[in-house]
């Protein structure tokens, strides 16, 4: 709840929040979810602030849509790096990929979390002077089978 009332939070706090979220989600699966949430040391040393709750919907999407229907080991890796003065966050999963369609939900629920987050990214991107949305890459094995998804977000950061 603390994150929901703040526009920005320390990167270390956002990382702790994502770890706690993934620990909770991991309880739903036999064998759990193997996950990492890390950042370049320099970003943590600089004590940067990132937009609150911007990454979580992409992590949730990886779990609910990428991993939920996957058998075997389930993995999610969240990484914050600095590239050309911009903080990039990647969310990578080893799920069934974006091409997998499990069918409509029995209750008729339509997910709008990613759409709302993309709209928020577009508003934040005005500060970066470039297109604000998530960039998706489908991952494949060497023989062409789906091997997950990689999402890259560019984040507007501030020094604390």
Properties at a glance:
alpha+beta; three-stranded antiparallel β-sheet; 160 residues; 8 strands; five-stranded mixed β-sheet
Brief digest:
By secondary structure, the chain is of the alpha+beta class. The chain has helices spanning 11-26, 41-46, 56-67, 113-125, and strands spanning 8-10, 34-39, 48-51, 75-83, 86-93, 135-140, 146-155, 158-159.
Describe this structure in words.
It is a single chain. Helix 1 (11-26) packs parallel to helix 3 (56-67). The chain is of the alpha+beta class. The radius of gyration is 16 Å and the shape is globular. The mean pLDDT is 82. Helix content is 29%, strand content 30%. It is built from four helices and eight strands. The strands form two sheets. The protein has a five-stranded mixed sheet. Strands 1-3-8 form a three-stranded antiparallel sheet.
Distance between the termini: 21 Å
The largest sheet has its strands arranged as: 2-4-5-7-6
For the secondary structure, the number of strands is 8
Measured by DSSP, the beta-strand proportion falls in 25-35%
Q: Count up the helices.
A: 4
Topology:
Blueprint lengths: L7 E3 H16 L7 E6 L1 H6 L1 E4 L4 H12 L7 E9 L2 E8 L19 H13 L9 E6 L5 E10 L2 E2 L1
Helix pairs in contact: 1-3
